[in-house]
Write a structure and sequence with these properties.
458 residues, mainly alpha, Cytochrome Bc1 Complex, Chain D, domain 2, 4-stranded antiparallel beta sheet, globular, disordered C terminus, binds heme C
Length: 458
């Protein structure tokens, strides 16, 4: 009897053990293979963490295009909550396809601060980040991308290029891009993007500066879909398919050689032609100079986030405290007769720009107004700059005179700097220190705003 009981016990033990092993196994197996509900969260966690480390510094933690690095960037990083994208293969106004987004992330956008991520993000990570970006705008939940139909390309030939040149004229691309595509001779010089920021049409003779590819097929798509958020219109329905391909072929044909591929004779010819076109269009040259000399960065008021107050672009009003020298407010550079450059003579303006002589004949400091750097502007460039400043529409903004400290505080400041070796304070204040038509005085009436230092440099 005994052995049989033992046997039965042994059998049941074996069964219990096998059952437990089976249960354990099935649990581990289930855990190992993701259930359908598991994968999206895992994917979105990956997308989110990649986004926060790689993209948020520019595009902002919530995707609003307001990361800490964004304030100085031009163009601004995309606001992903708007669902509005520039470089698509979809109809004007439509959301982009996943492929469109992946392509921009892979290749970056040339000529902007948007980097190419190919080397760092690919495969599942790329898909995860595309999914994450889409989750930031409700448009991707309620809409589907509407791809344009791409017709058969017309191969590049002399005939197609000639037809494209005609169509370029008829479609009036030259209004923005210039008759020769280089941006010279443009009519529309005051273009703004949807954020109200000035925007320059691409120089079509410099294809290496195109954001999103320079093949005929790329250019065809840019025309057909437009560049949403910028003034570049969509030509779908406005031009025939033939015209679109011909113009695309024409644009590839006007590409000039980049200077780094030119021989000495070509270089000489190129700069001679550049000189001529600058002389032919001084206002455009002046605008270019004003942009690279960053006049607007100082001669426009900025808000607490150092964001330019667009309404007063170039109308002055940014206040600086310069060590023991006093308080200075940048002057109004618009052509307003009462408060701007409207009643300055060309010579007064030139003396201020290159010799640091104020309109009243007094001398300005060699900083922060960088007139010492402008002292070496060529005559042509100086004329061009003045010509451009004359074209800025008038904005009323009355700028207070500089406030100089009295003799004793000045000497005390000098003593602290030279003998006590204390730091030389340079401060820039947010807000408009000028007096506008609507507010009798915005900032000067509220010294509490003016005394918030937003940047203190040594
Ligand atoms: C150094 C700043 C910077 C960083 C970092 C950055 N971007 Fe951008 N990004 C930009 C700017 C600027 C633009 C807008 C360019 C324009 O308007 O032409 C842009 C535009 C885009 C666009 C819009 C393209 C379109 O068709 O409108 C996408 C998508 C994008 N970025 C994705 C990303 C992703 C994903 C990351 C992180 C992996 C990232 N960006 C990181 C600066 C940045
Ligand atoms: C109303 C002004 C306007 C007109 C008209 C216009 N464009 Fe543009 N175009 C722009 C602006 C502005 C940009 C720059 C957009 C940006 O940087 O985001 C641009 C950019 C481009 C680009 C560069 C795309 C890239 O990848 O960077 C090409 C190519 C182009 N335009 C071709 C054309 C052609 C061809 C026509 C005529 C069929 C045309 N444009 C008509 C304003 C215009
Ligand atoms: C780094 C900041 C900064 C930049 C960049 C700058 N300015 Fe100024 N500018 C000032 C300040 C500050 C004053 C007021 C100085 C004063 O009252 O002595 C000033 C004054 C002037 C004046 C009056 C003359 C004078 O010296 O007071 C003119 C004209 C002027 N700027 C034009 C320009 C132009 C044009 C540009 C671009 C080509 C430019 N500024 C770039 C800061 C700047």
């Amino acid at each position: 009897m005994r052995p049989s009981i033992n046997k039965r016990l042994a059998y049941s033990l074996v069964i219990v053990i096998l059952a437990s092993v089976a249960t354990l196994l099935s649990i581990t197996v289930l855990k190992g293979s993701p259930s359908p509900q598991d994968s999206p969260t895992a994917n979105s966690d990956l997308g989110k963490s990649l986004y926060q480390t790689r993209c948020a510094p520019c595009h902002g933690a919530e995707g609003k295009g307001d990361g800490f690095a964004a304030s100085d960037l031009n163009p601004k990083p995309r606001d992903f909550t708007s669902g509005k994208y520039k470089f698509r293969s979809t109809k004007s106004g439509s959301i982009p396809t996943d492929d469109n987004l992946a392509q921009v992330i892979n290749n970056g956008l040339h000529g902007t601060s948007m980097p190419a991520w190919k080397e760092f993000i690919s495969g599942d990570s790329l898909q995860a980040i595309v999914t994450y970006i889409k989750s930031l705008s409700p448009r991707f939940q309620s809409e589907l991308p509407a791809p344009v139909t791409v017709s058969n390309p017309i191969p590049i030939s002399e005939k197609s290029i000639a037809a494209g040149k005609e169509a370029y004229k008829n479609l009036q691309c030259g209004k923005c891009h210039g008759d020769d595509g280089s941006g010279m001779s443009t009519v529309a010089t005051d273009l703004k993007d949807d954020l109200g920021k000035p925007i320059t049409p691409a120089n079509l003779t410099e294809p290496w500066t195109f954001r999103s590819g320079a093949s005929s097929a790329d250019i065809y798509l840019r025309m057909k879909t437009g560049i949403d958020g910028s003034p570049m219109p969509a030509y779908e329905g406005m031009a025939s398919e033939q015209d679109l391909w011909n113009v695309a072929n024409y644009v590839t044909s006007i590409a000039r050689k980049p200077v780094w591929q030119m021989n000495p004779t070509e270089l000489q010819q190129y700069y001679a032609s550049l000189d001529n076109s600058n002389k032919a269009n001084p206002v455009l040259r002046g605008k270019y100079l004003a942009t690279i000399l960053a006049c607007d960065q100082c001669h426009s008021p900025a808000d607490d986030g150092r964001k330019m107050i667009e309404q007063y672009r170039m109308a002055g009003g940014q206040k600086w405290t310069i060590g023991h020298y006093g308080d200075f407010v940048t002057i109004n550079l618009t052509s307003d007769k009462e408060t701007g450059l409207g009643n300055w003579t060309d010579d007064q303006l030139k003396n201020a720009l290159t010799k640091g002589i104020r309109k009243d004949g007094s001398r300005s400091l060699p900083f922060p107004m960088p007139w010492t750097a402008m002292a070496s502007l060529s005559n042509d460039d100086l004329n061009a700059l003045v010509a451009y400043l004359r074209t800025i529409p008038p904005v009323y903004n009355k700028i207070p005179e500089p406030k100089r400290p009295n003799f004793f505080s000045y000497m005390w400041g000098k003593f602290k700097m030279l003998i006590l070796k204390e730091d030389f304070p340079l401060q820039m204040y947010p807000g408009n220190a000028g007096e506008t038509k609507s507010t009798s005085s915005m900032e000067s009436a509220h010294p509490s705003i003016a005394s918030t230092t937003i940047r203190k440099e040594k």
